[in-house]
Write a structure and sequence with these properties.
Elements lengths: L11 H11 L20 H26 L2 E5 L4 E2 L6 E2 L4 E5 L4 E3 L1 H6 L5 E2 L1 H30 L1
Parallel strand pairs: 1-6
Antiparallel strand pairs: 1-4, 2-3, 4-5
């Protein structure tokens, strides 16, 4: 038949690549970044930052075992269940987690077991977002009531 098949035609990518190689100016995929101002730092400043970073790493490695055994109040990232009572824990809910031995409890069981969990960073961020939304909602209702009162 007179129809061309896909094998007879070169792919569009090959054609584009062939076109680029024949032209004299190269085409860049990403434009160059604008000049970023370099921050000059003295040797002493770099050394000070390096020592601080090493001290933080040393402290983390020394306390790693202690931190693994602690209970943390955290946000559930995967569906699961409480190890004590079997209550289902859904994504976004609060739970108490310990890394070694690995266990997760619902808030009711953690209070019955008299655990004193520390808030995790993720939990604190979640609570901060909640407070921000509440504050925004409160301010909106407060401003609306002021406008109604002034009329």
């Amino acid at each position: 038949m007179g129809l061309e098949t896909e094998r007879d035609c070169p792919p569009a990518q090959r054609q584009a690549r062939a076109d680029l190689t024949t032209t004299s100016d190269p085409v860049r995929a990403v434009p160059p970044l604008p000049h970023v101002k370099e921050i000059r730092m003295s040797y002493k400043s770099r050394e000070k930052r390096r020592r601080a970073r090493l001290a933080i790493e040393r402290t983390r490695s020394e306390r790693r075992e202690t931190m693994r055994g602690r209970h943390y109040l955290c946000v559930v990232s995967r569906d699961g269940c409480c190890n004590e009572c079997g209550t289902s824990l859904r994504i976004g809910a609060d739970a108490v987690y310990r890394h070694t031995p690995r266990e997760i409890f619902c808030l009711n069981c953690s209070s019955q077991l008299a655990l004193k969990p520390r808030p995790s960073l993720a939990w604190e961020r979640k609570e901060q977002r909640k407070r921000k939304k509440r504050r925004a909602g409160f301010l909106a209702t407060y401003l609306a009531s002021l406008e109604e009162g002034s009329k």
